[in-house]
């Protein structure tokens, strides 16, 4: 089937508008190639430019448009052919932060009104979560997880997905309320450490009220509220990690000594990377970071309540 006969609309990462055509002629190009007359095609193009809020920009050429305006012209051009399938390749990647926010909302509205399926390729988790009904996460050419946004973000299954949704993630073996994660850990910072030679070990001493059991070479045991058996994931957000200069009294079930390996700004808070028997990320306020004198090399105690740890089958 020749390209002009395929009912596929495409929005490219760099838009690829025809530089010698005006906005209205860019949008009219597809209908013209599908056999519609010049007047009919331009009328349809004008209608689509009005739908995307660019009715008054029809006579402008691409170089006279801003990034957000060019993106909307490219979307109108793709939709003007009434495609059965819509493909969008990083449609917001070329936009600045402010324009991206507004254009994402506009794009969501048009995708919701599109009668056929649409496939959006993006490296931005916010774009994926805001635009998609169903997510397919691909790593190294292989689909590693799929589902709706709620299920993927609630139960990530790889380091990459955990980083995207901002969770500390560990894989191990569950024995009731205990999850033996071994010395090789997965974290919200994306690091993977340890030899992994005992990553499936399940022979740690039972964990008492004092906290997590760990040794430099051996497994680490986390305690969660919900019981589970067999291969499992354990996840908790950086905001669930509390830091103390000394071992706290009456501490939660999961307590371990850690060393600060890095501190950087994360929204209104600071994200602290922790080394130790359990590598993790913790979010603290700037005031707390100053009080604890958090800097690389600083030793602290980290705690996570059992109720904050989410476990699910691996």
From TrEMBL:
UniProt keyword Phosphoprotein, yes or no: no
Annotated stretches, region: Disordered: 182-216
InterPro entries: ABC_SmlMolc_Importer (IPR050093), ABC_transporter-like_ATP-bd (IPR003439), ABC_transporter-like_CS (IPR017871), Mo/tungstate-bd_C_term_dom (IPR008995), Mop_domain (IPR004606), P-loop_NTPase (IPR027417), Transp-assoc_OB_typ1 (IPR005116)
This protein's UniProt keywords: ATP-binding, Molybdenum, Nucleotide-binding, Transport
Domain Mop: 249-313
UniProt keyword Nucleotide-binding present: yes
GO MF assignments: ATP binding
Residue ranges constituting the ABC transporter domain according to the UniProt record: 1-165
Name this protein carries in UniProt: Molybdate transport system ATP-binding protein
Organism: Glycomyces lechevalierae
């Amino acid at each position: 089937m020749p390209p002009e006969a395929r009912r596929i609309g495409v929005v490219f990462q760099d838009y690829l508008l025809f530089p010698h055509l005006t906005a209205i002629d860019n949008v009219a190009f597809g209908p013209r190639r599908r056999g519609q007359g010049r007047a009919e095609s331009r009328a349809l193009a004008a209608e689509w430019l009005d739908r995307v809020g660019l009715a008054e920009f029809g006579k402008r050429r691409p170089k006279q448009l801003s990034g957000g305006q060019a993106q909307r012209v490219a979307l109108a051009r793709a939709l003007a052919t009434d495609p059965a399938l819509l493909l969008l390749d990083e449609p917001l990647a070329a936009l600045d932060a402010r324009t991206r926010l507004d254009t994402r909302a506009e794009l969501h509205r048009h995708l919701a009104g599109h009668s056929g399926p649409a496939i959006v390729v993006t490296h931005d988790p916010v774009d994926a979560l805001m635009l998609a009904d169903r997510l397919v996460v691909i790593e190294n050419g292989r689909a590693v997880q799929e589902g709706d946004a709620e299920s993927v973000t609630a139960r990530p299954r790889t380091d990459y997905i955990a980083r995207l949704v901002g969770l500390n993630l560990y894989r191990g073996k569950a024995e009731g309320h205990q999850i033996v994660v071994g010395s090789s850990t997965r974290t919200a910072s994306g690091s993977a450490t340890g030899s992994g030679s005992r990553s499936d070990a399940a022979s740690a001493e039972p964990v008492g009220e004092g906290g997590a059991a760990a040794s430099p070479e051996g497994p680490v045991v986390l305690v969660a509220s919900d019981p589970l058996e067999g291969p499992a994931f354990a996840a908790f957000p950086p905001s669930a990690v509390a830091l103390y200069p000394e071992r706290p009294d009456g501490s939660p079930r999961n307590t371990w000594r850690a060393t600060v390996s890095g501190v950087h700004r994360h929204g209104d808070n600071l994200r602290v990377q922790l080394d130790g028997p359990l590598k993790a990320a913790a979010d603290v306020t700037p005031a707390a970071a100053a009080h604890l004198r958090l800097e690389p090399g600083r030793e602290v105690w980290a705690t996570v309540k059992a109720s904050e740890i989410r476990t699910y089958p691996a």
